[in-house]
Amino acid sequence: MELTNLSVIRGLCEKYGFEFSKTLGQNFLINSSVPARIAEGAEIDGKFVLEIGPGFGCLTKELCMRAKSVVSVEIDRSLLPVLSETLAECENLEIINDDILNVDIASLCEKYGESGVDVCANLPYYITTPIIMQLLEGGAPVRSVTVMVQKELAKRFVSPPGSPDYGAVTASVMYHTKPKLLFGVSAGSFYPAPNVDSAVIRLDVIPESERVKVRDKETFFRVIRSAFAMRRKTLVNNLSAGFSLSKSEASDILSSLSIPVSVRGEALGIEDFARISDKISENKSIAL
Ligand code: SAM
Hints:
Blueprint: H1 6-16, E1 28-29, H2 34-42, E2 48-52, H3 58-66, E3 69-74, H4 80-86, E4 93-97, H5 105-111, E5 117-122, H6 128-137, E6 142-150, H7 151-158, H8 168-176, E7 177-185, E8 190-191, E9 198-205, H9 217-227, H10 235-242, H11 247-256, H12 270-282
Parallel strand pairs: 2-3, 2-5, 3-4, 5-6
Antiparallel strand pairs: 1-8, 6-9, 7-9
Helix pairs in contact: 2-3, 6-8, 9-10, 9-12, 10-11
The chain binds S-adenosylmethionine.
S-adenosylmethionine binds next to strand 1, helix 3 and strand 3.
């Protein structure tokens, strides 16, 4: 069954009384080459894979053809009978009916006797950033994340410091991973078609021991959030607001690190944020 074929999709909708939900970000792929390209880009041959949102199963099928085993988490219960038919031949697949944000990924790995998992998905757009942040910051043993997201968001994930799309999310993604843009996908490749184009990105998780070193991660992420809290303001102003410092105290911190006091957050890379964060952590008089 060709699961990206529009008449097949319409037939399944009719047979199971399925209606697309905008709220759940249900835009299914109808471009037959894209699911295989995503699965290839994820490089998951023989691996343990977690998929988020199988829909009617077009990407799931490609993942099952390559991976050792696949766990696919779908929030919409009404898709389960459809998936029982479309993926009946996938013997290395388990489908879990749940919200991905409630799934304990570490326990899943344990259950499968795996030390880590590669995530691959055409993500629901309404919840893309929370899902990616939970995968990266939630402490689960995630090795890589290959996902379709809105093009604008994809640009933000892979932008270098100094570019207009660089922000707090980018800095956090760069701390955890090596991000890469794989390819673009036009809005017409989906049914129903969304208003914007998409892109597939791959985030290769950097092992903890190889990440930028910071004394205290909480302070580090607070520095990043503060730095981009008000984009038009200088870093001195944002740090002063974020850490209840006087402007001269914030300026002194930057000067002691040879960072210009007129700089804006978007000009700095994660190494600079780490240095600022360490300086703040070592200064006992700053209320953290
Ligand atoms: N994989 C299919 C494809 O490429 O055609 C469908 C992708 S569609 C963009 C997103 C899928 O995620 C839908 O099946 C939707 O029901 C599911 N979904 C939405 N929110 C979810 C959540 N919080 N947890 C798990 N699945 C979710």
